[in-house]
Amino acid sequence: MKPARNLDHISPYLFVQIDAKRDAMRAAGIDVISLAIGDPDMPTPAHIVDAMAEAIRRPANHRYPDYAGSAAFRQAAAAWVQRRFGVPIDPSSETLALIGSKEGIGHLHTAFVNPGDYVLAPAVGYPVYSGGATLMHAQTYYMPMRAETGWLAEFDAVPADIAEQARILFIGYPNNPTGAIAPPEYFDAAIAYAKAHDLLLVHDNAYCEIGFDGYRPPALLERPGAKEVAVEIFSLSKSYNMTGWRIGFAVGNAMAIKALGTVKNNLDSGQFTAIQEAAIVALSGDQSCIAEVCALYQRRRDLVVGALRAIGLECATPKASIYIWARVPQGLSSAEFAEQVLTQAHVIVTPGSGYGPGGEGYVRISLTTPDDRLLEAVRRIEDSMV
Ligand SMILES: *Cc1c(COP(=O)(O)O)cnc(C)c1O
Q1: Model confidence over 202-218: pLDDT tens digits?
Q2: β-strands 248-252, 230-235: how paired?
């Protein structure tokens, strides 16, 4: 037998390689601190876990879920978008439950891309934007991103002939991995660009709840005309410490939601209804857990930014997200620096180059590790650099 040819063009998923290195070192008895993965270390808030414990006992939940998500979940998701961003959303035609936002992002390629088409992805970004394109025998054009322009993906730099063959434009702010945020005018320009080139605009808004210093990240759907061209993807993973639960949702353009729904009902059968019930409690219940999560990451952000600068590593102070995007020392590539930090300090950071061609020269540090281990990691990096 032979796997499909497009699998040859997929580089191993960045985090799978990093996990393998970590496991090998740990098996050898080495105390490795991983700052590599954006996976909250704190538990899911108790009221959400309690709702799940109840929901799992209800026999009705043991049967196949609704493909698009339960009506109650879609209503709760739409109501949350209305409350949080002031955008009215129709729960039945403009809302779709996802088995985690990664699933929805990956399947949008199946819904919108033909073999040979182009997908416009940020030159530094979530690997699924381009990986999903490769799996559909499509091509990725990486939009340039630079520190000087605030890491805003430059769709204006896409050559006209590529734009002509493109089907999807992916953006995501607050941004993983750079921690950058986008001003409303940027969203407006992306909407205009998508309209002009007849593209589906996808805004991956996984970090909208995690803002610092009073900043509350907006939704793209707040902008005029967004629904004509865009879907926005939300996730409960980072905001409610629910990465393991696999629950998120897509909202926006009804035609796009319908197309994604068609792909999904041919490939999956929806998320476990009990998980959807717990997610309803997360979205509709007391939101003080969000303030706690923001306070925790803001404190860690300040610890890490301070410690990195003290050892001579440059980084910006992010207004949102759970990442610090730090420049590697002069003369080293991101992969060389990450390798050096791993072998000499037993600390794992992710090389920026793993997020696409625009990430060279940087590493990403995730704040999802307890404070004492974060500081220990920076101390070890400092020792390894002298
Ligand atoms: C974590 C993350 C996701 C995935 O979230 P899930 O809902 O857990 O699949 C999507 N996009 C970005 C940019 C992320 O960092």
Answers
A1: 999 999 999 999 999 99
A2: antiparallel
